[in-house]
């Protein structure tokens, strides 16, 4: 038997047990809401009007480095969303004739939205089931943001990095 071995004794049970996982850390991802993502990301929303050309929309997508753009009418109401996928599909259907077309011809007019207080897990499930990557965030009828699957992944990665740092600090002391 090694010299460092000490058998279990009655007094060993009196020590406070610690755990690397707690109910709080395990539930934190499940309790995260759209508002948490918007708080980190910001609430800037890029939009275009329906009568603009696809060429203009492509420039905005490129310049802002985004994958979708919201479409608002002149009164400011949300009337659609235009994604890179929508444009690529049309490029395949009308090669060389896509850029002059109008946004309203390609946009998705039935836009699924979410509220800031919705669970990220629920919103991600809706996005996955609907096979789309961007969702406008509405609060009391007003557009307050746009989240993407990428935003959610970034939010979760940051949270995991923070949790890992806390664990490292706990271990190191």
TrEMBL record:
It holds the Pfam family CBS. Keywords: CBS domain. Residues 39-99, 107-167 form the CBS domain. It comes from the Bacteria. SUPFAM superfamilies: CBS-domain pair. Residues 1-20 are annotated as: Disordered. This is CBS domain protein. InterPro entries: CBS_dom, CBS_dom_sf, CBSX3_CBS_dom, Diverse_CBS-Domain. CDD domains: CBS_pair_bac_euk.
């Amino acid at each position: 038997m090694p010299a460092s071995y000490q058998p279990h004794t009655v007094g060993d049970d009196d020590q406070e047990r610690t755990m690397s996982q707690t109910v709080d850390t395990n539930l934190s991802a499940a309790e995260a809401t759209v508002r948490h993502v918007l708080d980190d990301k910001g609430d800037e929303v890029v939009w275009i009007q329906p009568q603009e050309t696809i060429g203009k929309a492509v420039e905005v997508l490129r310049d802002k480095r985004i994958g979708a753009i919201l479409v608002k009418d002149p009164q400011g109401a949300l009337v659609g969303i235009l994604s890179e996928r929508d444009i690529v599909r049309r490029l395949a259907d009308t090669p060389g004739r896509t850029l002059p077309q109008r946004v309203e011809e390609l946009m998705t007019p039935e836009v699924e939205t979410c509220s800031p207080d919705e669970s990220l897990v629920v919103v991600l499930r809706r996005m996955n089931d609907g096979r789309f990557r961007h969702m406008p965030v509405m609060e009391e009828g007003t557009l307050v943001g746009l989240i993407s699957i990428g935003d959610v992944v970034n939010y979760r990665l940051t949270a995991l990095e923070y949790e890992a740092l806390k664990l490292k600090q706990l271990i190191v002391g």
